[in-house]
Amino acid sequence: MSDQQPGRAPGAHMVYAPPQAPAVSDAYRRWAGILVRLAAVIAFLMAAAFVASIVLLVRADEDTRNAAYGYLAIVLWAGIALAIPVLLAVGIPGMVMRRRVRQHRTWPS
Fold it and tell me: Rounded to two decimals, what is the model's pTM?
C-alpha cells in the first residue's frame, strides 16, 4: 500500500483561489426590487390600519351609538395580525436578494 493520499499528485501544491460570485440575472434584480417595494407597501398599509383602528376606537368611545366602530377596529387588528406573516414572507427574501445583488455589484473582478 502506498503512503500517498488518493486524488493528489505527488509534488502538487494547494493554491488558494478566491470564491467566484454567482451570476445575478436582470430578472433576479427586478424581482428583488419588486419584493422590497411590496414589503414597504404592506408595512405602510399595516401602519395606516393601526392608526385608523386607534381613530375608530376613539370614535367608538365617544358615544354608545358608535359602538360599531370598535368592532371595525378589531377587524383591522385581525387584518394586521394576518398581514405580519405575509410581510415577513415577502420582506426577508427581498432583503436577502437585494443584499446578493449589492454584493455582486461590489464584487472585485
Answer: 0.73
